[in-house]
Amino acid sequence: MILREADFQQMERFFRRNFFNTLPGPRGLHLIGTKGHRGIENLGLFSSVVHIGATPPHLGFIMRPLTVPRHTYHHLKAQGYFTLNTVHPDILPQAHQASANYALEESEFEATGLTPFYSDHCPAPYVEESSIKIGLSYVEDHYLKSNDTMFVVGKIEEVIIPETVMQDTGHIDHNALHTMVVAGLDTYFDTEENARLPYARAKPKA
Amino acid sequence: MILREADFQQMERFFRRNFFNTLPGPRGLHLIGTKGHRGIENLGLFSSVVHIGATPPHLGFIMRPLTVPRHTYHHLKAQGYFTLNTVHPDILPQAHQASANYALEESEFEATGLTPFYSDHCPAPYVEESSIKIGLSYVEDHYLKSNDTMFVVGKIEEVIIPETVMQDTGHIDHNALHTMVVAGLDTYFDTEENARLPYARAKPKA
Fold first, then answer.
1. Rounded CA separation A104/A51 (Å)
2. pLDDT of B65-110, one tens digit each?
3. By CB neighbour count within 10 A (0-12 exposed, 13-18 middle, 19+ buried), where does A173 fall?
């Protein structure tokens, strides 16, 4: 079936939200940890992390409109640091609960039962239970007028991973880690490696 | 193990590329279709598509540095339209081949064997074999100085999907479609729905 703008506008609000959020397919799933200036540890669940570049290493993600308080954004701008933490099935219920809207003075770590973990290098809290922990410093953000959202960029300062999942080629073995992905706001998927394909080259025309 | 900037710098070039590309985990996988002003149909493989908002519906993605010709970027800016098309296992070899670096005058459709498909609404080519086809108009882009990359935003103008996978709630059934994801540049994953969890609410403190 073909749907266009007139169809989009007729969709009931929650139907439309689910439709467009799940439409492009499953995407990466991360807990973002930050710390407020009063010491409150904050945790949020995000599905918009993208790789920007490897040299130097940067990641970016989308912040929803700042028309309501966004603790993650305020903390990472104030402190200058945030952490990205992957999700696997054992911590899915806690990770999902981190998407609830808690008050500023409440720590999502406490509320969800996930454990804050600190290195001596990154002042923002990691999630101890996550297999991959990435510590980033805030670099830049861009206001997207399209939906009144913000694209935030961070530089990778620190990576904490089990040594056993780092392959000789540099690849991280996400199959061994059972790293999860998500479609929309609520539908979580397991991943299973299908193939690693050799670098694709243009074939000369016959 | 803990890795920091000094470790990142010591990594061999390809090792570092694989490491940082796969680090955050599997992410969405899409073929982007565009059409050049001389009529050449272009196809590229991307792993950086993010949901920006549902009302009105916008998606964004990262373009790698424009220091070499990027046909997708030039075409979508010139014509003002592009398409996003999902990947499932049946078309994985062709989709991967679309990541090869073809000359401007060569069509990746022809080179990969994927079939261009046009609606009467979107002037950019869809991939007929893809289960979900999304037609977008170019809206805005942002230069990310971090890695000399570009974040491109498009507005969803048209959606072509099998009616059977649209659930009553608005969710798209990606489990039925076998929509794939990718870690880094070469490691493809199947997805399997684990759970759809109810909207998370903050629990009142005991």
1. 29
2. 766 667 899 899 999 999 999 999 999 999 999 999 888 888 999 9
3. middle
pLDDT digits (tens, 9 = 90+) for B22-73: 999 999 999 999 998 889 999 999 999 999 999 999 999 999 876 666 789 9
B16, B61, B190 ranked by CB distance to A170: nearest: B16
CB-based contacts of A47: which residues, under 8 Å, 6+ apart?
A: A27, A28, A29, A30, A182, A184, A185, B51
pTM: 0.95
Which of B191, B21, B182 has the alpha carbon at shortest distance from B96? B182
Segment A94-112, tens digit of pLDDT: 999 999 988 888 899 999 9
B156, B136 in Cβ contact below 8 A? yes
> Which of B23, B175, B187 is nearest residue A196 as measured by Cβ atoms?
B187
Closest chain B residue by Cα to residue A44: B200
Model ipTM?
A: 0.95
For residues B189 and B187, give the distance between their C-alpha atoms in angstroms, rounded to a whole number.
Answer: 7
Chain A neighbors of B53, CB-CB under 8 A: 20, 146-149
How many Cα atoms sit within 13 Å of B68 on the Cβ side? Answer: 5
CA-closest candidate to residue B166, choices A184, A15, A187: A15
d(CA A24, CA B116): 19
For residue A93, list chain B residues with Cβ-Cβ distance below 8 A. 197
Smallest Cβ–Cβ distance between A194 and the set B25, B189, B195 belongs to B189
Across the strands, what pairs with A46? A30
